[in-house]
Each structure stands twice: as structure tokens, then as C-alpha cells.
Design goal:
Blueprint: H1 7-16, E1 29-30, E2 33-34, E3 36-37, H2 50-64, H3 81-91, E4 98-100, H4 104-115, E5 124-128, H5 133-145, H6 150-153, E6 154-157, H7 168-177, E7 182-188, H8 200-209, E8 213-217, H9 229-232, E9 236-239, E10 254-257, H10 304-320, H11 322-345, E11 352-354, E12 367-371, H12 375-384, E13 387-388, E14 390-392, E15 396-399, H13 408-425
Parallel strand pairs: 3-13, 5-6, 5-7, 7-8, 8-9
Antiparallel strand pairs: 1-2, 4-10, 9-10, 11-12, 12-15, 14-15
Helix pairs in contact: 1-13, 2-10, 3-10, 4-5, 11-13, 12-13
This protein binds pyridoxal-5'-phosphate.
Length: 435
């Protein structure tokens, strides 16, 4: 599509878009006006229906107490089943391959128990350098708990000198290099810092070719990019549901486990009564017998109030259809790329650089900007003008225009505010700089 820089064009893109669900969300305000909320990658906005679904749980609890597990429209015992089809669609899994439980980091530990099975020959783990902190701490502490030294096990891959994103050739070459010692390959599907989307299909193929298992952290991928976990043959994946999936702060998380493992009794796992064979769960007998689906990894009584919040969001995803959202998300980030590029073109001084890959196949809707100078001041200016963006040390501003509730007009407005910020803070009265 040929973009132009005028406001009317932004408005026409919004009019042409058939999938705006903005009206279904509460939009945060700034000085009495709707703010420009580009933080759906951090905490997605609240659907207006969330409170209704939560209230239903509270009402049932008030009226029938524990009987709520068995009674009413949507008995709590079967509540997860009413969510799983929609969630599986979003990540490209079979419904029986997805389980909703715990928090993301908890689930990563749980998947390590099952999928990291080192032996005397194979014990290495390949992952990205500077992974999200929680993932790093998970690996470090998990390995120590098993009596292993993280420094001897973990092989990190970093961007090349002077670059900001991983080069797939380096990922493949490293897998090849360690093919006789490799146990697990584990990456963020979309990097939280740069917004880079990795080729998960190719990484899975290469990892399996090297005899290793492969898992992904999809915190920034789920609800943002196209995923085909089952078809790609990914072994496991975990994600949180409070980012693009709008299920609220501390939302219940989810995990995917490929169906080929559901009957595999050689796999280690941590068990709990909620993963026990449903027919006899309440007989409380000795000897763990797991459910033969991803639910067999469940431990505890489901947090129904959190499930209700998740349901409100999943219903919107079902209406919108993830395929449409992915297309619109890419169009939005393309448009933001274009406006930033135009701005930089007209400027005598290059004050910023987009570090997210330009190729559509290598990103979702997040765009990360590296400020060459005064980044924190620019960021403060944006915040004072009602732009919700995200600041990452030392000098990166992350923006996520989300297709469900953000608009092209907001992207246009954001770029005007950014121009003002740069003119006020960096280029001062240099008239030729930004127009
Ligand atoms: C957001 C995020 C987390 C957060 O983990 P929680 O256990 O949900 O707090 C972990 N890993 C990545 C890659 C993330 O983006």
C-alpha cells in the first residue's frame, strides 16, 4: 500500500478498517482526553465485559458456594474447556495441546522439568543473550537446582557487533556447532526489546535435526503474530495473557505441549491433583495418573476469577479473528515505520533509528526506536503529552500500536508529538530540521 503523510490519509485507513474493536475497551485518559496507549505489549487494555464475567463468578459463589463447580450455565469444573478452543486458535495449536494455568515464569520452570533432560552426552541449552530477565533467572536457578553450573550449560547468541537483532544464520550455525551436545533450544518468539520475530518454524526444524527439544516464550508473540505451534512441531511454549491478550494484571498464564508427549510416560513432570485423570480425581488415591492432554500438567484448583477475565478477552479475539488482527497489526507498524522514516528523511540530523526489523515477516506490531541522544528527555516529553510508551535502558522507546484498539490516527498524532519533542529538546530552533 502507498502511504502518504497527511492526517486525512490516517483517517481513511481507520475508516477502511473493518476490525476496530476500540469501543469494547476502556481507554485510559490524560488530562480529560483519551491517551495514546501504545503499551498493549506490556499490559493490554481492559475489555468492558471483563467485569460482567467476573461478576458472574462472584454471583454464583454468593448464591451456591462450592456448588458453582458443578452448577449453572458454565460450571467451574468445565470452565477451562470453554476457553481453550479460542486460545488454541490464537497460537495455532490443537485445543488439547493448551492448558491455562499459573504464571508464565512458573510454567517455564514446569516445562524445563519435562523438556530439559540432560544426559552425559547432551546437556547444552541454546538461548538468546539478554533474554527477558525472568527467563534468565529461571534458567539460572533451574540449572543450579539440578546441580548444574549455568555457565557450563547455557550458550547465548547475541546480535552481531553493531547490530540490534539476531541473525538467523548465527542461530542455525550455533545449533549445528553443538549438535552432539545439545539438549534444548529456547528463545523468545518475539524479542521483548527489539520486537524481532524469529523464524520459529526453521529454528524448530534445525533443533530437531540436531536431536534437541525446542521451546519458545511467546509473551510478546501470542495475540500479536501468526503462530502455528502444532504444524511447526514445536515441543513446548509458554506465554502470559496480560500483554496482547488483555486478561488483566497478573492474569492466569498458559502453556502449549505438543500432543506427541501427552501419552509419553518417560517424560518427567511435576504433578498435582488438577492434572490427575478426571474420572477418578476426587477418589484421592495413591499414584499419579495424568490426564492425557496438556491439562495433565495442571497442578492446582483453577483461579476462576482470572479465568473469567481471560474469557472476556478471548471472546473479543474470536470476533476479531487472529488472522485479521495480524494483518492489521502489520499494516499499523508499516505505517509507523513509514512516518518515522519520512521524518528522519526530512531531518538534517538523524536523531533516531528504528531497531525493529523492517521486513514484515520479522516483526509484529511492536516498533522499537533507538534514540541517539536525549532519549529519556524525549520519553518524558511524550509521557507529559499523554503518550503511553515504554522506556528501556539505555536508550530505547518501545511502541506497540495494537490492532484491536489503537487507530492509525493515533499513530499519526504520536509522530506529530514526537516531532515536537525532538524540535524542543534536540534540534532546538533549527527550522530546517523537522517539518
Ligand atoms: C512479560 C514477560 C515475562 C513475564 O513473566 P511473568 O511470569 O508473567 O511475570 C517473562 N518473559 C518474557 C519474555 C516476557 O516478555
Amino acid at each position: 500500500m502507498q502511504f502518504t503523510t497527511d492526517l486525512l490519509f490516517a483517517k481513511s485507513l481507520d475508516q477502511k478498517s473493518h476490525i476496530s474493536f476500540r469501543d469494547l475497551f476502556f481507554i485510559p485518559t490524560h488530562e480529560g482526553k483519551e491517551a495514546i496507549y501504545f503499551l498493549g505489549n506490556s499490559l493490554g487494555l481492559q475489555p468492558k465485559t471483563t467485569i460482567l464475567y467476573i461478576n458472574r463468578i462472584l454471583k454464583t459463589w454468593a448464591e451456591v458456594g462450592v456448588e458453582g463447580f458443578f452448577k449453572g450455565q458454565n460450571p467451574w469444573l468445565e470452565y477451562q474447556e470453554s476457553l481453550i478452543v479460542d486460545l488454541a486458535e490464537i497460537v495455532g495449536a490443537l485445543p488439547e495441546e493448551v492448558v491455562i494455568m499459573n504464571g508464565l515464569t512458573v510454567n517455564l520452570h514446569m516445562m524445563m522439568v519435562s523438556f530439559y533432560q540432560p544426559d552425559s552426552k547432551r546437556n547444552k541449552i541454546i538461548c538468546e543473550a539478554k533474554a527477558f530477565s525472568s527467563d534468565q533467572y529461571m534458567l539460572e536457578t533451574h540449572l543450579r537446582q539440578r546441580g548444574l553450573e549455568p555457565g557450563e550449560i547455557i550458550i547465548e547468541i547475541a546480535p552481531r557487533e553493531g547490530e540490534h537483532v539476531l541473525n538467523h544464520e548465527d542461530v542455525f550455525a550455533t545449533i549445528e556447532k553443538y549438535k552432539d551436545q545439545l539438549s534444548l533450544v529456547f528463545f523468545g518468539g518475539v524479542n521483548y526489546y527489539s520486537g524481532q520475530l524469529l523464524d520459529m518454524r526453521a529454528i524448530t526444524e534445525k533443533s530437531h535435526g540436531a536431536g534437541a527439544k525446542v521451546g519458545f516464550d511467546l509473551a510478546h508473540a501470542a495475540g500479536n503474530v501468526e503462530l502455528k505451534l502444532h504444524d511447526w512441531g514445536v515441543d513446548f511454549a509458554c506465554w502470559c495473557n496480560y500483554k496482547y491478550l488483555n486478561s488483566g494484571p497478573g492474569a492466569v498464564a498458559a502453556a502449549y505441549i505438543h500432543e506427541k508427549y501427552h501419552h509419553d510416560t518417560s517424560l518427567q513432570r511435576f504433578g498435582g491433583w488438577w492434572g490427575f485423570k478426571k474420572e477418578s480425581r476426587f477418589q484421592m488415591e495413591k499414584g499419579f495418573v495424568p490426564i492425557n492432554t496438556a491439562e495433565g500438567w495442571s497442578l492446582s484448583t483453577p483461579p476462576l476469577i482470572l479465568f473469567a477475565a481471560h474469557k472476556a478477552s478471548l471472546e473479543i479475539f474470536r470476533k476479531a479473528d487472529i488472522q485479521n488482527l495480524v494483518i492489521k497489526g502489520k499494516l499499523m507498524s508499516n505505517y509507523l515505520f513509514y512516518l518515522l522514516f519520512e521524518m528522519n528523511q526530512r531531518s538534517s540530523q538523524k536523531v533516531l533509528q528504528v531497531i525493529t526489523p523492517e521486513a514484515e515477516s520479522e516483526r509484529g506490531c511492536q516498533v522499537s526506536i533507538l534514540m541517539h541522544t536525549d532519549g529519556n528527555k524525549v520519553f518524558e516529553y511524550l509521557s507529559a503529552q499523554g503518550v503511553f510508551a515504554d522506556w528501556r535502558e539505555p536508550n530505547v522507546i518501545r511502541l506497540a500500536p495494537v490492532p484491536l484498539y489503537n487507530t492509525f490516527e493515533e499513530i499519526w498524532n504520536f509522530v506529530q508529538i514526537l516531532k515536537q519533542a525532538i524540535k524542543t529538546i534536540i534540534t532546538k530552533d533549527d527550522e530546517t530540521t523537522i517539518n
